[in-house]
Amino acid sequence: MEDLLHLYSLPDDEKRPVVCFDELPVQLVGDVVAPLEMKADKPTRFDYEYEREGTACLLVAFEPVTGKRLVETSKQRTKADYCRFQQRVAEAWPKAEKIVLVQDNLNTHNASSFYENLPPADAFALAQRFEMHYTPKKGSWLNIAELELSALSRICLSRRIGSIKELDREIQAIVKERNKLKIKVEWQFSTEPPLSEGEVKNFDYSALDFQLISRPLSTVPSLSLFQRLRAKIIKHRIPSFSVMPGPMKKSFWPSISGSGSRA
To answer: What is the pLDDT of residues 206-216, one digit of tens each?
Structure first.
């Protein structure tokens, strides 16, 4: 776990980009009866009956620091599909000396997929482009690519899509827009130890400018300290909440200004 948290804390480096890879199976569902088209004051209406059209799989590579993503629609997720997609990843990050690849422990996610589908020399060359890191077992939530797949699912996959061609068209349109906007992920977990009860009680609040809270978090000094203190107080609702200055109670902690306060 600490290995991945350390990787996510590293600054942007085009020579060693941190790229998260994951896959998402998708069920293709078509209509038996053509839906009624949307009209003024009336949304599109669908019949309850549907028809299964098979399955597909989305392969995604996402660089959280820069907001760059690569998504492919595939029929399966075999070793051949993994090999083909990683070739595309290597081409998409041409300036990288090593692509630091974060992925889960699926049995296709290793260099053997390259050697089983490419000539030995090509497989070796492709393997040398990657430095593979794996999420812990039962810890796939540490893979930031899951956040990107979650966003794609909520935007696109909550409705009926009946073919791989239609799925790819819809997904690529969304990916193009998100790449244009450079939508990133600000990872909040770190390897820093949590604050102790004594640290919270003795924290020097006067050293912080609480007016900064209206600005983006990236501009707030000691951001990790803010996060650790907030998480500690929310988790335990500690009585020491009462020692915080009045403005902090009202503006900085509105979600917990009720229970736990003894002002």
So the answer is: 554 444 444 44
